[in-house]
Amino acid sequence: MTRLSEPSLKAYRAEGQRPSAKRLEQEIKARMPERSLMGIVARTAYWVEWWHRFGPPSGNEPKLDDPFGRYVITMFVKGTNMGPYEAARHIPRRERA
Length: 97
Fold this sequence. Notes:
Elements: H1 19-31, H2 37-48, H3 67-79, H4 84-90, H5 93-96
């Protein structure tokens, strides 16, 4: 408490990382596969099937060769605020064609 009867906290000083915490972090990294953001968006689109909600307003089937892939790429690009130039640099050519 301060002179004005206000509660106060002392600054907390970290003691450093324990060896057990370092081992735990290494074990988690070894067991956890590396994921890409595009892969995560594609998996959620497949599992949840949110990509079916996109398409022409008329309700007809989309006239795209691969609507799933196109909608996933569009969601990734728009969700990360990329412009066309950045998207062209980050998406492999075979997926853009």
